[in-house]
Amino acid sequence: MILTVTPNVALDKTYLVDGFHINRIHRPVEMRTSAGGKGVNVARVLKTLGRPALATGFCGGHVGRRVVELIEEEGIQHDFVCVEGESRLALAVIDTQTGTQTEVNENGPEILAKELDAIFAKVREHLSADTVLVLSGSCPPGVPDDFFAQLITMANEAGAKSVLDASGAQLINGVKAQPYMAKPNVLELGHITGREIRDWEEVQTRADELVATGIKVVAVTMGGSGAMVTDGKQAFLAVPPRIKLVSAVGSGDSFTAGFLDAMLSCEPLDRQLAMGTAAGTANATTYCAGYCTKDSIMEIAQQIDLRRLS
To answer: What is the pairing mode between strands 88-95 and 10-17?
Structure first.
């Protein structure tokens, strides 16, 4: 079973605007409202690929209830912790003329101590040696900086695999707890190591250093330039085909879903990377996170340029 933890679920509202300018009134030419948050996006793409996942996290207030309604409409399994605060809105404006995207994301609800206890208990309830625990996204106020690290430790004790896709203190503390897999982007990899990343050779070096700390797999994404993966024994680079970029939001989550689907299908490491890269690229051809199709993922997967690194 795949269990995704989204500490800061959101109601995503995306507006397509022809010619966005500040200090102007705009009428969107198109808009979409969807359930959001990185773990929710991962679960959405996994469902698209035919692999169900269970989504959990904090959810509260009118916004939280609407998020749950939308998740249920999509047929995504869920088991959220209800909180007293109001879940957040995440607004995005895409300018169809320039391709720019402007986002305003609320911070999320204040999480109480009893609500933290509840999420730890819920995750523990679903953990087993067959679980893949996906920890991703930002954390709302009240959540400690070692929240993901504590969950990784819990997963390790249960014999489960954990996947970390976070930033800031949650990422720094999380990698110290030795997840099975870490998926930073290239900027986050630099933050972890405290060193500037200049090229793919540097990416591989720093990723291998993380593997040497006890993490089994490190995958590093770099937008349209591709992604690389290493397990300390072998390393691969995947370069996607050129596409017409619509929105990159959710591409990292889609990468995680594609990678995990291939991993759980017992595909070799290079094919796991190819499927992750294909899913992330397919997502970038759509707007709203995780709404790529299985056909588009499979089509792009055939066009991935895979290279073995020394």
So the answer is: parallel
| Span 32-87, pLDDT tens digits | 999 999 999 999 999 999 999 999 999 999 999 999 999 999 999 999 999 999 99
Which fold would CATH assign to domain 2-309?
A: UDP-N-acetylmuramoyl-L-alanine:D-glutamate ligase (3.40.1190)
Q: Where are the domains of the chain?
A: 2-309
Distance, CA of 93 to CA of 30 (rounded, Å): 10
C-beta separation of 100 from 23 below 8 A:
no
Active site residues: 253
* pTM for the whole structure: 0.94
From the list 141, 79, 146, 62, the residue with the least C-alpha distance to 109 is 141
How many other CB atoms sit within 10 Å of the CB of residue 21? 9
C-alpha separations of 264 from 119, 268, 271 in Å? 25, 10, 12
Sort 252 into a burial class: Cβ within 10 Å, 0-12 / 13-18 / 19+.
buried
Residue type, 96: T
